Fold Protein kinase domain-containing protein.
Amino acid sequence: MDGCRSCRKQHQPMPRIVVQLYTYQACRALAHLHASAVVHRDIKPQNLLVDASRGHLLKLCDFGSAARLSQGRPALVAYICSRYYRAPELIFGATNYSTAVDLWSMGCVLAEMLRGRPLFPGENGVDQLVEIVKVLGSPSRRQVLAMNPQYFSFAFPTVAACNWSTVFRKTVGPEFTTLLSEFLQYDPETRIKPLEACAHSCFDALRDERARCSDGQPLPPDLFNLTQRELRTCSASLHDRLVPAWHAARCPGSPPQPQAAG
């Protein structure tokens, strides 16, 4: 993502509306992928490309590490994803992970946009885990087993989680940190799903009909047009939370399909 690379160099966070816009679009891209059981496995700022001349339209790129999850598939590799954005279950050597690894990475990218620098800058795999524990605190035994059942005898020293106010500037509101907390869960199954993330109150500003980009451009026109793949995992109630009434009235479409089982 061009803007994120620039902010990383300058150690300056992005404008609020830009962070919301980029995160929302990245979650939409993940929702589309995950609905087809495809895991990207390398979500990072460099793989999120933005066209600033088109309302900061974001595209997910570089699918060289992507994999389709299916029954009977060969074991996945644990040594995958750029280190700063690597989910803890990968650090623990799990090979039966899910699309939730992308959601952890998304949380890391969100934090980087808010801070202007990476949240977990580990120098190697072990140091990466140390950086995570320093912020989130020690995982419980149940959380360790959720990440990798093979670590049933592994124990962590007790480390308390940091308050987000010590990690981010005072201008970063709770709407961002609550969403971030839902991405950065040790237990992969408890991480917020992509479309649920899009419905989070953090993005309510984007659902305002008068919303504009920080440079005055209108928002991307397809921001609330869900794809057929996204609709497979979107209940009617979630659809109502995602799509503002003014957009639904202006662009009537097919009703959402029932939420897929499982």
